[in-house]
Write a structure and sequence with these properties.
single chain, 243 residues, alpha/beta, 8-stranded mixed beta sheet, 3-stranded mixed beta sheet
C-alpha cells in the first residue's frame, strides 16, 4: 500500500478547496496533496459568518472551507491535505490529530526547526472562539518559541464509506493579516528548505500510516469532479457569503 503524493504547487483558491473535497469523496487510495495559493486568499471555516470579515482589504479573495475552525490568511505557506479511509487514522479525533501532527513535527525537525505539540487548551472545534485560526493556539497545534506554526482541521464522512480529510497550514512567512503567527522564516530561508520540507512531510506521514510514498497526479475523474465543485460550490457567491 502507498500514500499517493500530489505536489500541486501554487493553485487558485477555489480550485484548492474543490480538489480537497473531490479527493475526500473519490474512491482514491490514501492521498497527500501539498500545495500553495495563488493569489493569496482568506479561507473561512465552515460555520463562520462572512459578514465578520467585511473589514478585509478590498479585493482579498475569500473562499469557504469544507472544514470548521477559524479563518486563515493563506500567504506564503505549505498547505497539506491528507485524504484517507477512516480506518487508517485513530477513531478518536484527538488521537488522529496527535498522529498527524507528531509526524509533521518530525518532518519540520528534519529541516532544523524545533516545535512542540500543545497538549492543553481548547480541543479542535468546528465553531471557533476566535475569528482567526492562528490567533489562539489550541490542543494539538504545533508551536515554536514565537507562536503557532501549524494548525489543521478535519472533515469526516460516514457515507458512502468512512473517509477523513485532514488539511492544514504550515506558515513559511507571516501573512500580512495574521502577523501573530510563527513562521519557518524566523529561523530558516523558506525557499531553501521547502523542497526538503515537502519530502520530509510526505515521508513522515507515510511512515506514521505504515505506507510508502508514491508520486502521482490527480486523475481525469478527480479533476472533472473538482472543476464541477469549483464552479457550483467554491465560486458560488451564496455558498461563500450566504451565512
Amino acid at each position: 500500500m502507498h500514500l499517493r503524493l500530489l505536489d500541486c504547487g501554487l493553485v487558485e483558491p477555489a480550485l484548492n478547496m474543490a480538489l480537497d473535497e473531490a479527493l475526500l469523496h473519490g474512491p482514491a487510495p490514501a492521498t497527500l496533496r501539498l500545495y500553495g495559493w495563488s493569489p493569496h486568499a482568506v479561507s473561512l471555516g465552515w460555520f463562520q459568518r462572512a459578514a465578520e470579515f467585511a473589514d478585509l482589504p478590498a479585493g482579498t479573495p475569500l473562499v469557504r472551507r469544507l472544514t470548521g475552525g477559524g479563518a486563515i490568511h493563506h500567504g506564503c505557506e505549505l498547505t497539506f491535505a491528507l485524504t484517507v479511509d477512516a480506518g487508517l487514522l485513530p477513531t478518536d479525533v484527538a488521537g488522529s490529530y496527535a498522529l498527524v501532527h507528531d509526524a509533521l513535527a518530525a518532518a519540520i525537525a528534519r529541516v532544523g526547526i524545533t516545535t512542540r505539540r500543545l497538549e492543553h487548551g481548547h480541543a479542535p472545534a468546528a465553531r471557533p472562539g476566535s475569528r482567526w485560526c492562528f490567533a489562539v493556539p489550541g490542543r494539538g497545534d504545533l508551536l515554536t518559541t514565537t507562536g503557532k506554526l501549524l494548525g489543521s482541521a478535519q472533515r469526516r464522512l460516514a457515507r458512502p464509506r468512512a473517509r477523513i480529510l485532514h488539511h492544514g497550514s504550515l506558515v513559511l512567512r507571516r501573512a500580512p493579516l495574521t502577523p501573530f503567527t510563527a513562521a519557518v522564516a524566523d529561523t530558516k530561508d523558506p525557499d531553501a528548505v521547502l523542497p526538503a520540507l515537502k519530502s520530509a512531510v510526505a515521508q513522515a506521514l507515510a511512515a506514521a500510516l505504515g505506507l510508502a510514498t508514491e508520486r502521482d497526479t490527480a486523475t481525469a475523474a478527480e479533476m472533472t469532479m473538482a472543476m464541477q465543485l469549483r464552479a457550483e460550490r467554491y465560486r458560488d457567491h451564496a455558498f461563500t457569503f450566504g451565512r
